[in-house]
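dumping the sequnces here before i forget
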Amino acid sequence: MAVTAKELAQMCGVSRMTVHRALTDTGRINQQTKELILKKAKECGYRPDLLARGLVKGQTFYIGVVVLDVNNRYFSQLLSAIGMEARRRGYFVNITLHEENKEMEKEQLERLVDYHVDGVILSSVNQGEEYREFLQSLDTPIVTIGNKIADGIPFVSIQEKKAAREATEVILQKGYEKIVFVCPPLEQTETNTYVHQQRLEGFQEAVAEWNRKLDQEQSEVDTVIIDRNEGFVESTCEELYQTEKRTACFCTGDMFALDIMKYMEGQGRIAGRDYGIIGFDGIDMLNYVAPRLYTIYNPVEEVAKEAVKLLFRLMNGEAEGDNTVILNCQIQEGETL
Amino acid sequence: MAVTAKELAQMCGVSRMTVHRALTDTGRINQQTKELILKKAKECGYRPDLLARGLVKGQTFYIGVVVLDVNNRYFSQLLSAIGMEARRRGYFVNITLHEENKEMEKEQLERLVDYHVDGVILSSVNQGEEYREFLQSLDTPIVTIGNKIADGIPFVSIQEKKAAREATEVILQKGYEKIVFVCPPLEQTETNTYVHQQRLEGFQEAVAEWNRKLDQEQSEVDTVIIDRNEGFVESTCEELYQTEKRTACFCTGDMFALDIMKYMEGQGRIAGRDYGIIGFDGIDMLNYVAPRLYTIYNPVEEVAKEAVKLLFRLMNGEAEGDNTVILNCQIQEGETL
DNA sequence: TTGAAAGCGCTAACAC
DNA sequence: GTGTTAGCGCTTTCAA
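..and the predicted 3d for all of it:
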């Protein structure tokens, strides 16, 4: 069924080379034979074998993308944006999922590299020096996004810490006396939690700063950190109302925040009225939930664009400096603080 | 950096063939040389070139997936499930997005085929005989899901029409006298809307059946069909309250339903109390929205599993009969009817 | 038990 | 303008 260039050549009574010239429009070639070949090629539905081409050119015009999953606005928009940017440059995208499994992530990367993708965009759950060496051993341009792996690995991200600090300041300025900080388990975990660690640090810095500036008679802000384990919703909610202090909750992800809001609503407690709450990322779903959640907007499209731009610079050997891009992000107001 | 089998052979002082035998563990080979080779291979981080292998074997152990987008539970869970099933069989998955663009869909398919994926799972926006021929001309096993293309193309789906009929019966039994049916534009559209058409037909059949069985004094059910165009929310809402009849809304997608609920809430109208509404698919987001939306649950994982199973049957040449798999799906109760 | 040779379908370098 | 030759890295066939 599939026609090869060789067969085409036979049909047209010319050499393989001439066919090649006609198809790739390179070199000197007789206009008539060229047209004949192109016509024939169309007739038989000739399509070049990209494996063969990739093998000889050492370039496949594919970039690989390895991400956690895909079920949220963040990755979805990221992937769309990466796709667009890649296509603009004549590249296609091969998306694979690692589902938060460190070994799977490695496998996917190796497989992509073995297939000679020209570059990779990676949102990793691995980290550290050892992994850095692994990535470098792949000998393929890689740009990481979100979680940082180690110094020296190209990296695109947002100003996590700064954003968390600013959000915390907003909470404090609104007069909350206690803050419950909810994030995934950061200790005793093997997976990369860089993003959430940064957010925690920003939070802690802002609180420390605030306490330092207090008047004599004012008391320090009360803080509690809760791991998003089994039962985190219940324990967070207890913290939220077993106190006389005005209490707010800072979640390092919008989904955690929504879970809490939902549970609290079941108890008759309304966000913004009975307690404060803020999320992180600004996922689409927020448009459908009342009251409107305060959050920190994560500019995914920009992250994607920058990642692709950086990747192409690496692929073209134009890399210079430390190849880190950190984007700004802003608080998106809501009704829950 | 990257070592080839040839170089390995030189290092070990054997022929390329012996290396190959050691690596693939085939044929007779001296145990000692084999161990030496494997050891060396590990040291240099030898990895087979999958392009070269694919070229000669005519098999890549990749399956391609082409879907609309990725930003909802449906596709997300679909992709995870496809990934799992494929991995169980030693295959990897290459996911690409067509973003509801018919030309892009074709491009992605061609590209995948040119890269010799061994099979494809496709959720299409194209349809008809011409497209069927296109798909067949690709000469690669393809399984379609969701939208049907044409007879003769392997197809996995749910019982759209039956589910819509049953849902309509539920609405009618609850005493609603008017139903507003909301779906994407089905006429004058080039893209494949099979799924939504089926749902519409199921709805219409149920209404017709109901009207046929009415007593003398009872009046027929009133129905309105609204295209999900610009402004569909407003027009739907007008239909919902510019009448004295008890009115319900049947949306062929949960998202449409949520849009309407949100707008109505802005007008002080609560679903389940002031009007009825039901969606379709059972997306995750529903867990976070109050009141709980009535919907029809779409069993994605099963669809994915069946699609992969069917695809592997096709790839192994075990295809028999018409290769259509239709799964059951059920109404998921909520508070909005 | 090992090796040599041919070929997958394509591109690149050089000759005619 | 066109054809020949060689080679990408691997697998397969056949001979030693």
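Residues 4-6, 16-17, 20, 24, 48-57 of chain B lie near DNA strand D (CB under 10 Å from a C1').
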